[in-house]
Amino acid sequence: MSSTSQKHRNFVAEPMGEKSVNALAGVGEVLGKRLESKGFDKAYVVLGQFLVLKKDEELFRDWLKDVSGANCKQQQDCYTCLKEWCDAFL
Q1: Are 80 and 73 in contact (CB under 8 A)?
Q2: 27 in Cβ contact with 35 (< 8 Å)
Q3: In Å, what is the CA distance from 23 to each residue of 1, 17, 73?
Q4: HSE-up of 85 (CA within 13 Å, CB side)?
Q5: 3-state secondary structure of 27
Q6: What is the pLDDT of residues 26-46, one digit of tens each?
Q7: With contact defined as beta carbons under 8 Å apart, do 30 and 7 qualify?
Q8: Would you report the helix, strand and coil content of the chain in percent, each value rounded to 5?
């Protein structure tokens, strides 16, 4: 099993609430600003897109790359973060 970041562990440890998009693993300041400029300002808005895409890894990663320019690691980190959050809370 691959190790996860502290940011990832913190995110999946509790309900999402009103967390900023920057709270998602794989999303830093630059990606966060790009997502915010497209209307994805909160983690739950990105979660909504994740669910619309039926939690499909390839579709979500492609979407994240298209909307924010995320690299492969950022895509994987964000996908894994949302998937594990859903496994714990949905």
Answers
A1: no
A2: yes
A3: 22, 11, 16
A4: 27
A5: coil
A6: 999 999 999 999 999 999 999
A7: no
A8: 65, 0, 30
